Amino acid sequence: MGRGKVELKRIENKISRQVTFSKRRSGLVKKAHEISVLCDAEVALIVFSTKGKLFHYSTHSSMERILERHERYSYAEKRLNGTDSEPKDDRSLEYPKLMSKIELLQRNIKRCVGEELDPLSLRELLSLEQQLDTALKRIRTRKNQVMHESLSELQKKEKLLLVQNNMLAKQLKENEKIVTERSQSQLEQHHLVQDSSALVLPVPSLTIGGPFQANGSIGEEDDGRGGGARRNPPMPSWLIRHIS
């Protein structure tokens, strides 16, 4: 007894509709894979669920490559049929192409950060993991290169600072030597000035009556042998006449 013909119509029950969608989607992907292997054909399958979730399948060549090939063939076919005579058709074809590229890039970015991984198969997950590993190796290589360049630059700066430090230390020693020599020279000049001032002889006193007072004071002093004061010697006659 053969299988009965199923009437194609929308399933009203949400649960039954979701189960049927999962089964038919798996079968559709299986059939696409079989035709690609058996017939060596490039197959691209794109399915959007009622909730807007994307499910897709592509052969060994990427989905983007197959879509671009489809657009080129569609555009060439329109040119041959004469339905693409106006320039606005070029723009109308370019817009969905750009939008598809934008969506693909956005989806790849989300997958690279670990989002929207549920629709991916095991092969696609392995491919994504390999891409991330390759990108990580490139990032690490670039990081090591930047660190090496930074280290080399810092070493050059260190050598330059050491040279400048040595020059400043040498200049500082020369300045200290000059200051020390100047201090010693000033100290020697000061000693010479003091020595020259010590060699100057005192000027004798010219006070009038100094010898007479000295003689008188000497005559009045006790000679140590008598108890009285000594008398002054008599004045010469010429001095008496001169005073009178």
What is the highest CATH level, the class of one domain? Alpha Beta
Residues in helix, %: 55-70%
Q: What's the architecture of one domain in CATH terms?
A: 3-Layer(aba) Sandwich
- Spatial gap, N to C terminus: 192 Å
Supply the CATH superfamily name of one domain: Transcription factor, MADS-box
List unreliable stretches of 5+ residues.
210-229
Number of helices: 6
Cα Rg? 61 Å
What's the total count of β strands?
2
**Beta fraction of the residues?**
under 5%
Compressed to H and E, one letter per element, the order equals: HEEHHHHH
Largest sheet features: 2 strands, antiparallel
Secondary structural class: mainly alpha
The dominant shape is: rod-shaped
Cross-sheet strand order for the largest sheet: 1-2
Would you tell me the overall average pLDDT? 77
Kindly report the CATH topology of one domain.
Answer: SRF-like
Which features would summarize this protein structure in a list?
4% strand; TF_MADSbox; mainly alpha; 244 residues; two-stranded antiparallel ribbon; 68% helix; SRF-like; 6 helices; 2 strands; transcription regulation; rod-shaped; single chain
